[in-house]
Amino acid sequence: MVDPLTVRPLPPLERIPDHVRTLADYERLAEDHFTPEAWHHVQEGSGEGWTLRENREAFSRRTFLPRAFASLKGGGTAISLLGREHAAPLMLAPIAYQRLAHPDGELAAIRAATALDTGMIVSTLASFTLEEIAQAGRDFARGMGKGPAPLWFQLYLQPERRHSLELVRRAEEAGYEAVVLTIDAAIKPAGMTLPMGVDAVNLAGMPRTRQTATAGGRILLGTPLADAAPAWDDLAWLRETTRLPILVKGMVLAEDAARAVDMGADALIVSNHGGRVLDGLPSALDMLGGVADATGGRVPLLVDGGFRRGTDVVKALALGASSVLVGRPLMHALAVGGMAGVAHALLLLRSELEAAMAQLGCPTVKDIDAARLIAAH
């Protein structure tokens, strides 16, 4: 019997094999490039994994209706989002501890994103500092003779607001262009034991609130961990604190989404946290339409959860999304091929997106709407 503690992952490939043609190919290769514990951490869902599966199965419940004789002249995937041009409706999602996948972690990811003119959201739990990641993106862009890619900061609120404020100010000073307030993961299952050299370096010197039993027999409710969960007044405080655009990530209920917009959110991210925090949540794709109806086009809507093909992206756009976040596939490609792997994965996804748009008769992202979809039988 093989002891998982003695299994050493394969190093990243120096060249991406010709047979890697989809994000699924990266996923099949990736397991051998992680330790068993890290692979479980990346892939796991909460509970029995129902929501994790539902994120994928939601796509199969919708099929396409292409337009005949549609002109494709002047087509392209470019979009404008929060005042910035994006080459395509794709962004790298905020994934923690990317050094679990590759020694260069988030530095490799931002370089790949820059090469493909793709935005990136950096996690509070990144394994490089906010400043190092932003500088790596600027340096790489300068070397390519172009401007940096859009860069946003994902904020997990800290137990004390002064520490949250410190993170926001650091992001502002480092050139981040938006704050993504994540509200659905303050209380989640305990994570893996991080290996040496991997840590939440941006939280150095800050207290960490953990789930522990307390006097009086309290398990979770009534403990400091539960008491520190995000509340509506935290959104109001953040809106008063920064002039950067604020996105709220973790929206599921339409009424909550509308309230967040009323309170000053500049965009929303419909998300069930990749099925990692509460099993039994519906797919983000299924919730997208209700959020779109409730917010009435007042702000852009982004979505994450299970995106693996260009056709998945088209379905989200047709249901009202402005852009899609790519999460686990980032870690797969990063482990297999480092920066080159992530850049190649983004290129594959964009190529599939353009092919699907062409076949549907949608030359631009604005041409994709609900009329291009029909429920599968």
How would you describe this protein?
The chain has helices spanning 23-30, 36-43, 50-60, 105-115, 130-144, 161-174, 224-227, 232-241, 254-262, 284-295, 310-318, 328-360, and strands at 62-64, 79-81, 84-86, 90-92, 119-122, 151-155, 179-182, 246-251, 267-270, 301-303, 323-326, 373-375. The chain has a single domain, classed as Alpha-Beta Barrel (TIM Barrel), CATH 3.20.20. Helix 1 (23-30) packs antiparallel against helix 12, helix 4 packs parallel to helix 12 and helix 9 (254-262) packs across helix 10 (284-295). The chain is built from 12 helices and 12 strands. The strands form 3 sheets. It has an 8-stranded parallel beta barrel, surrounded by 8 helices. Strands 1-12 form a two-stranded antiparallel ribbon. Strands 2-3 form a two-stranded antiparallel sheet. The protein has 377 residues and is α/β, with parallel strands linked by helices.
Features:
eight-stranded parallel β-barrel; 377 residues; alpha/beta; globular; TIM Barrel; single chain; two-stranded antiparallel ribbon; 12 helices
